[in-house]
Specification:
Elements lengths: L2 E12 L2 E12 L3 E6 L5 H9 L6 E6 L5 E4 L11 H6 L4 H5 L2 H11 L13 H13 L5 E5 L7 H14 L6 E5 L3 H7 L2 E6 L2 E6 L2 H13 L6 H16 L12 H7 L9 H12 L4 E11 L6 E12 L4 E5 L6 H9 L6 E6 L5 E4 L14 H5 L6 E3 L2 E3 L1 H7 L16 H14 L4 E5 L7 H12 L4 E5 L3 H7 L2 E6 L2 E4 L3 H10 L17 H4 L14 H34 L5 H33 L1
Helix pairs in contact: 4-5, 8-9, 9-10, 9-16, 20-21
Length: 613
């Protein structure tokens, strides 16, 4: 396997921190590398060094002769006065770029909705990101280095980007290095991982799931000081093996190995207990949105323009809902309706008398009044003790749990980084003791370890949760059910993000889907006597009975196969070691039996998750 670029004994130090200490790495043909680590540990700097954009203090960076490198930074360098056309393809004549199937695919996949002759300065943040991505992806590079490529992108575009990168090169050709906090994206496109920490870069085989498994194994052998970090990784792994990643057609680790590792790890959430606590705080009436149509008046004509139409959403105590939709689909409008900030022009919204909202906005407007205060001054306005996970704890301890040090308590809010502000804002929102929590992109600016800590904090939160995020992993990890806004209509997507992507891939919902009075229930089902109505998980009674029978059947088959496997293993041990043919034949039968068990386990996981919703 030919090497494309690498670095040897690289050292780099900034005035306040040593970033790299004797780092030696190589990037080979066919590598697809995801780069993870805490914010500030040097992930973006590593890309700049390898790309040749930043000179190290010591050591050397080498590129194979003729290798071309394309680098996407976190911030673009696009000229605001330039047209989108020129920003993407430059001065190339139309016949050159228009005749390339790859260029056309990139333009259609990323910027089909962007005015080709409009100026860059008129674009939204998400549109600029897609224009910058298109500019890079139409190039013919040997190595692509992408720094947070999913920032400002919606789930549909992230899905397109993953598919493009997987198909961009044939196996063993080209190389990809990607820095991102999007764990689904890492698992989807990466075949190996680099973890940047403490001046070092540690390599791991496999995608993000395999990285978590290997890191757990490493942490199991670490000193007691690493115990907290190890347990966090093990809890995340427990969800990985029980949830969507366990159903992957390309599993990154064996189900049985993961199960053995997490045998003593409880489920990430005690749903019954959280429901009980939520009902005690909220009562039965929380939020009912009934046949609501909402929107805004046109600035020029004054005519009403609906953004969300005929939406019905019954939100109960302890529900954990995710809200999906492309940028501009109407998610913010619907959240305003739910909170009573925007009155619908038709329909009604009923908010329970005991409801207390806690809202984390994308722009972190909640922190604006505190910019000149220190963290300690802000915390002084709150109670001294709170009950979290059944134990009394102080705001300072919760802040420490979110990665802040004692010294940082004296920092001004205005001096904090974006990730620090987001963590602090989330904590202050929870300290206000709401019983309905609305989180709009809470994962922005957070690294993968900090995302796991935030997820752990949310796991024990006893209330109703509504989450808006383009981070697919975060969405599937902390919510139990997802809804989507498609073509201005709200619908329940029982199949989660996968079903949503299938729907928007066909330019929205099928005719009439999601246009009924109740999200996720076809209109015909609501007519009197019009057949079985799905439950909250999208299942009819007949479907639920079928799934129960399937789960029981699979369990019996797995038990039978495991007994057969034990017999074959005993048979293998009794064979004469010199009888090579018998050994090979028996081992082949054992391998086939194990493969059959793996298939049954995957089917069992799929059926069980459907049943549990």
């Amino acid at each position: 396997m030919a090497i494309l670029l690498g670095c040897d004994s690289v050292q780099l130090e900034f005035p306040t921190k040593r970033i790299f200490d004797e780092v030696t790495l190589g990037v080979n043909e066919g590598d697809r590398i995801g780069i993870v680590g805490r914010n500030g540990d040097g992930k973006s700097t590593l890309l700049s060094v390898l790309a040749g954009a930043l000179e190290p203090d010591c050591g050397r960076v080498t590129h194979r002769r003729g290798v071309t490198v394309g680098l996407l930074g976190q911030k673009d360098a696009l000229d605001d006065n330039m047209t989108v056309h020129r920003a993407v393809v430059g001065d190339a004549p139309e016949y050159e770029w228009a005749s390339s199937p790859r260029v056309r695919a990139v333009l259609d996949g990323l910027i089909a909705d962007v005015d080709w002759e409009g100026t860059v300065g008129e674009l939204s943040g998400g549109q600029r990101r897609r224009v910058d991505l298109a500019r890079l992806l139409i190039g013919d590079y040997d190595v692509l280095m992408l720094d947070e490529p999913t920032n400002h992108l919606d789930i549909r575009t992230i899905n397109w980007l993953a598919a493009h990168l997987k198909a961009r090169w044939t196996s063993g050709v080209g190389a990809l290095l990607v820095v991102t906090h999007d764990r689904w994206f890492l698992d989807e496109v990466c075949l190996s991982m680099w973890e940047v920490h403490d001046g070092r870069v540690d390599p791991f085989e496999g995608g993000y799931s395999a990285y978590i498994l290997q890191r757990v194994e490493r942490d199991r052998l670490a000193a007691a000081a690493e115990d907290r970090r190890r347990n966090m990784a093990r809890k995340e792994l427990a969800w990985l093996s029980r949830g969507a990643q366990a159903r992957s057609t390309k599993p990154k680790f064996r189900v049985e190995a993961a199960r053995a590792l997490i045998a003593d790890v409880p489920p990430v959430r005690n749903e019954l207990e959280l429901k009980r606590l939520a009902v005690s705080r909220l009562g039965k009436q929380v939020i009912d949105v009934i046949d609501a149509t909402a929107g805004y008046a046109d600035a020029q004509t004054g005519a009403f323009e609906p953004v969300v139409s005929d939406a019905t959403w019954l939100i109960g105590a302890g529900d954990r809902f995710g809200l999906l939709g492309e940028n501009g689909a109407g998610k913010s409008t619907l959240l305003s309706v739910i909170q009573g900030k925007l009155a619908p022009v038709r329909g009604r919204v009923k908010i329970g008398a005991t409801v207390r909202f806690g809202v984390l906005s994308q722009q972190l407007d909640e922190l604006a009044p505190y910019m000149d205060q220190t963290i300690r001054e802000v915390l002084s306005h709150y109670k001294r003790l709170y009950v979290v996970d059944g134990k009394e704890t102080s705001p300072e301890k919760l802040l420490e749990r979110l990665g802040f040090t004692t010294k940082q308590l004296w920092s001004r809010i205005g001096d904090l980084s974006g990730g620090q502000r987001r963590r602090l804002s989330l904590l202050l929102t929870i300290l206000d003791e709401p019983n309905v929590l609305i989180l709009d992109e809470p994962g922005n600016d957070l690294d993968t370890d900090m995302l796991a800590i935030v997820e752990d904090l949310l796991d024990g939160w006893p209330g109703t949760l509504i989450l808006v995020t383009h981070d697919r992993y975060l969405m599937e990890r902390v919510t139990d059910s997802q809804y989507a806004i498609i073509d201005g209509h709200l619908r329940h997507v029982a199949g989660g993000v996968d079903e949503y992507l299938r729907l928007v891939a066909h330019d929205g919902a099928p005719e009439g889907a999601g246009r009924s009075g109740r999200a996720g229930v076809p209109a015909a089902s609501q007519a009197a006597g019009a057949g079985p109505v799905p439950d909250a998980c999208g299942l009819t009674n007949a479907e639920r009975q079928r799934l129960r029978r399937e789960v029981s059947s699979l369990e019996r088959k797995m038990e039978s196969r495991r007994k057969r496997l034990e017999e074959l293993e005993r048979e293998l041990g009794s064979i004469d070691p010199t009888d090579y043919e018998a050994l090979v034949a028996t081992q082949a039968r054992i391998d086939a039996e194990r493969a059959e068990i793996d298939g049954l386990e995957t089917a069992w996981l799929e059926a069980s998750e459907q049943l549990e919703g």
